[in-house]
Amino acid sequence: MIDHSAIVGQGDGIMAELRDWTQWFAAYDDPSSALASRLLVVNDGIVRALNEAPPGAIRILYLCAGQGRDILPVVAAHPRRTDVVARLVEVDPAIADVARGTAANLGLTESIDIVTGDAADPATFADFGPADLLLLCGIFGNISDADVANTVARAAGLTARGGTVIWTRHRHEPNLVPSIHDWFAQAGFSLLWESDAALPESVYVAGHRQERDPAPTQNTDKLFTFVK
Ligand SMILES: C[S@@+](CC[C@H](N)C(=O)[O-])C[C@H]1O[C@@H](n2cnc3c(N)ncnc32)[C@H](O)[C@@H]1O
């Protein structure tokens, strides 16, 4: 296992500007919460991506992975778990440690690399290569619209042909979801599925498939900046 902390640092530079997400994660433990309903949709999307992955390694990249609540138990329970090679990037060391503890408890330490670092900085994932599953959950509601557009465009370079991107965003007005769909289409993705419109307005999840070969890029600019 590579110790990426030496490469990307511990994210201290932006830690001072970040909010404390502890309470946000607590909502996962309340089955009646909107976040718990979102979790089920994301889980289903991950299972679908694993089920449909061709034989061989399944490469998963998760930017701003948090405690890994949506990905780790699903991978652990899936018949393809031994095919998974994953990189989770989370800037908050305490939150990343929770993810590491869960991965260890689930026996996933060898296959899931949890990096403490800035997921907006390509240095944290440049060596990982195109992903078969790219997770952008809990990001688009916390960055500017321009950064959402930029991140979607850059996702095209991070996702293998035939790979899936799963993303989340609330649908509060002004609802950015239709624009995000347009940006994914422009970046070469097709819509695979989307969450039920009857879910709370704070919940929207979609899965898109990359229909092109990812263009190699040397772009070292940051993808986004959290503003919330
Ligand atoms: C809304 S939570 C989402 C967590 C997880 N993706 C989920 O859906 O359960 C946002 C997470 O992003 C992390 N975060 C914020 N800015 C980040 C950055 N630049 N790089 C990596 N993680 C970041 C926060 O510490 C927090 O854990």
**Overall pLDDT confidence:** 92
Largest sheet: 7 strands, mixed
How would you spell out the order of helices and strands? Answer: HHHHEHEHEEHEHEE
In the CATH hierarchy, what is the superfamily? Vaccinia Virus protein VP39
- Total number of β-strand segments? 7
- Rg from alpha-carbon coordinates: 16 Å
So how many helices? Answer: 8
Structural class by secondary-structure content: alpha/beta
Protein name: Methyltransferase domain-containing protein
Organism: Catenulispora yoronensis
Pfam families: Methyltransf_20
Structure summarized in a few sentences:
InterPro entries: MeTrfase_dom_put, SAM-dependent_MTases_sf. It contains eight helices and seven strands. The protein has about 230 residues and is an alpha/beta fold.
Task: Give the arrangement of secondary structure elements.
Blueprint (H helix, E strand, L loop, with lengths): L4 H4 L3 H4 L6 H5 L7 H19 L5 E6 L8 H6 L6 E7 L2 H13 L6 E5 L14 E6 L8 H14 E10 L8 H10 L2 E6 L10 E6 L18
Parallel strand pairs: 1-2, 1-4, 2-3, 4-5
Antiparallel strand pairs: 5-7, 6-7
Helix pairs in contact: 7-8
Bound molecules: S-adenosylmethionine.
S-adenosylmethionine binds next to strand 2.
